[in-house]
Amino acid sequence: MLARVRRMGYVDPKMRSQAPAASHDFSLFLDVDGTLVELQETPDEVIVGESLKALLIEVSRHLNGAVALVSGRSIETLDALFEPLVLPAAGLHGVERRSASGERRGANYCDPSLAPARLMLTAFVESHPGTLLEDKGRALALHFRLAPEFETSARQAVSALVRPLAPAYHVQEGKMVLEIKPHEFTKATAIEEFLKEAPFAGRTPVVVGDDLTDQSGFRLVEAVGGISIAVGHRVQGQWRLDNPAAVRHWLTSFAALT
Fold this sequence. Notes:
globular, 4-stranded antiparallel β-sheet, alpha/beta, Rossmann fold, Alpha-Beta Plaits
């Protein structure tokens, strides 16, 4: 597979400012916020339009179901955003996963060791107006997009709280957000499991993402002859699309496959 990808020009030390032509051989692993949809000031403001849902249905049909959402959101939240569409998905940066057959793992476990951090972060946002705690159950995300003046305080607070939780937990950085999440799970671990299963097995894996958490997925698929596509300029992939609108436009080329 790797030799084939090299012949087609996908493996290039210099990232290209476009994306590869659509192929029936691809399996797609798509980040959501900042990739499929534009980032909003708060996570609750994100809306997935009906046109995007319809597009993903068509893309999935043309790829025989080999399309998965791989997100920092929980699977429950993804299902609410994309309703009634239900795709294979990895949530919480790989902590949760739902296979194409519908099998779920990691979704219902509650870790009591996170309780002190949850309480402290709740107090933090109450005393720092504009910051926001996104409680994902297995992970805690502190957003400071609306209050960038508190970035230093937010970093200090999260760093102090994750210290007693290590090595089981670590801090995952994002765009104006710091997340305390389980250390052993990444987007790469979730994608690796998908690649062992139908309909993803035997295809060329393509990961599309915009943030630091997507890099593990990039490196994984690159190592097995797959393709990484960065959205924007925060992360490095083999290819680049400028923004979510460009991603959605690229996806339309899959819906046109014959």
